[in-house]
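Tokens as discussed.
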């Protein structure tokens, strides 16, 4: 049990440095910001 728990935590940390709760919102926000800024430059 603890092993599998450790694993999921590790993969999450690898995925992104933010905590699991802010994971997706932060990622989405970053992606959206990039998408908004990039089209203007490209």
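Sequence:
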């Amino acid at each position: 049990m603890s092993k599998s728990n450790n694993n999921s935590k590790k993969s999450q940390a690898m995925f992104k440095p933010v905590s699991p709760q802010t994971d997706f919102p932060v990622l989405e926000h970053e992606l959206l910001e990039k998408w908004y800024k990039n089209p203007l430059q490209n």
